[in-house]
């Protein structure tokens, strides 16, 4: 089979969930299955920088398809006005072309497959910048029409896509994400953990949130719950908020100042991939009070590192975490605080959740993910040949 991947996300310097998902799929699928694989990418800007990044993929066995005529962003702006076929830029050999970030351009040769990870912009429009919402409304509508198939990452997200985008159920398949256990594991030494802690000025015990700092992650209620925890437990551990700044980040900073928690809450900024598991391993608890997730990789990664997790009882979280997490109502500040206080005061419960978490995380592998993906591709190509 000839499979092409639209590879723009591998060039992101500060990857988040979608970027890491694309990278893990690309690196694992070529190891599992013997096919002809292509990376499609644009070299109009930063060609030398991109060349260094793709060398790793060349070594894995990918063939490169480069568009030198125009940058990706310009093509995306133009394709709904001047529908230049994607095949004119990248050729017409592929039987499957996979897009990782919901966009589907016109004129894709073979079957066009796209990922749609969640419907947060429809379910919680107040958590999204309104300009982005309008763009998503239009682009996702077009993508759902152009795509031959849609892949999402949980049963919850599949139901949301069917509900909001009015697509047929058989057009949407599920590929749960995985955990890279070569990185996320329990075997980091105390020295390795302390090195990362010193870098970010963390002393003693700490609670950890890791992810983008944006409204849907519910950081404001977490800060309010932490302020309440400080009232109850004057010696409560530090709270570390790790991740890059998102939309409305200033409101989070203002809330920390309002509660006078500047000495108790640490902002690390974006955490590099090599440091994240050590920070997770060293934390007493991982706290993830997100209102809405299509999957929620960070709690799984924390669980793989042996850290007990406090998670929202909303959206995909119960489907992914199972009985291995301590659930909270993310809308109730006191409930979040109660959970933190309960777990901080109960070593046995933390150990039990740690054990369950390690076991649960092992159920989600990237090998399993790409096997599900390949079954979808085979069905699409086989059905075409059959017809």
Automatic annotation (TrEMBL):
<dbReference type="InterPro" id="IPR028098">
    <property type="entry name" value="Glyco_trans_4-like_N"/>
</dbReference>
<dbReference type="GO" id="GO:0016757">
    <property type="term" value="F:glycosyltransferase activity"/>
</dbReference>
<dbReference type="Pfam" id="PF00534">
    <property type="entry name" value="Glycos_transf_1"/>
</dbReference>
<keyword id="KW-0808">Transferase</keyword>
<dbReference type="InterPro" id="IPR001296">
    <property type="entry name" value="Glyco_trans_1"/>
</dbReference>
<feature type="domain" description="Glycosyl transferase family 1">
    <location>
        <begin position="203"/>
        <end position="358"/>
    </location>
</feature>
<protein>
    <submittedName>
        <fullName>Glycosyl transferases group 1</fullName>
    </submittedName>
</protein>
<feature type="domain" description="Glycosyltransferase subfamily 4-like N-terminal">
    <location>
        <begin position="133"/>
        <end position="182"/>
    </location>
</feature>
<dbReference type="Pfam" id="PF13439">
    <property type="entry name" value="Glyco_transf_4"/>
</dbReference>
<dbReference type="GO" id="GO:0009103">
    <property type="term" value="P:lipopolysaccharide biosynthetic process"/>
</dbReference>
């Amino acid at each position: 089979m000839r499979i092409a991947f639209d590879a723009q996300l591998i060039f992101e310097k500060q990857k988040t969930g979608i970027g890491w998902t694309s990278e893990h799929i690309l690196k694992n699928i070529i190891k599992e299955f013997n096919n002809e694989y292509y990376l499609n990418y644009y070299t109009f800007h930063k060609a030398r920088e991109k060349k260094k990044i793709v060398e790793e993929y060349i070594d894995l066995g990918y063939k490169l398809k480069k568009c030198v005529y125009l940058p990706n962003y310009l093509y995306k702006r133009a394709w709904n006005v001047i529908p230049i076929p994607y095949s004119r830029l990248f050729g017409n050999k592929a039987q499957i072309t996979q897009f990782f970030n919901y966009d589907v351009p016109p004129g894709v040769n073979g079957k066009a497959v796209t990922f749609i990870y969640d419907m947060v912009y429809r379910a919680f429009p107040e958590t999204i910048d309104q300009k982005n919402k309008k763009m998503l409304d239009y682009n996702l509508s077009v993508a759902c029409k152009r795509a031959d198939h849609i892949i999402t990452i949980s049963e919850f997200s599949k139901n949301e896509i069917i509900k909001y985008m009015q697509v047929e159920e058989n057009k949407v398949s599920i590929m749960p994400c995985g955990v890279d256990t070569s990185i996320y594991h329990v075997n980091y030494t105390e020295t390795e953990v302390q090195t990362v802690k010193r870098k970010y000025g963390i002393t003693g015990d700490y609670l950890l949130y890791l992810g983008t700092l944006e409204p849907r992650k519910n950081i404001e209620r977490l800060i309010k719950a932490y302020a309440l925890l400080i009232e109850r437990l004057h010696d409560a551990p530090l709270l570390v908020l790790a991740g890059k700044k998102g939309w409305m980040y200033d409101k989070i900073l203002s809330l920390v100042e309002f509660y006078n928690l500047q000495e108790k809450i640490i902002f690390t900024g974006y955490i590099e991939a090599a440091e994240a598991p050590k920070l997770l391993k060293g934390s007493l608890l991982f706290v993830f009070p997100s209102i809405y997730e299509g999957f929620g990789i960070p709690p799984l990664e924390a669980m793989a590192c042996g850290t007990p997790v406090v998670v929202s009882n909303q959206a995909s979280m119960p489907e992914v975490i199972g009985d291995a997490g301590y659930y909270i109502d993310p809308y109730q500040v006191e409930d979040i605080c109660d959970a933190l206080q309960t777990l901080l005061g109960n070593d046995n419960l933390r150990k039990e959740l740690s054990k369950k978490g390690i076991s649960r995380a092992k159920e989600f592998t990237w090998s399993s993910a790409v096997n599900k993906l390949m079954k979808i591709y085979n069905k699409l190509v086989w059905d075409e040949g059959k017809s």
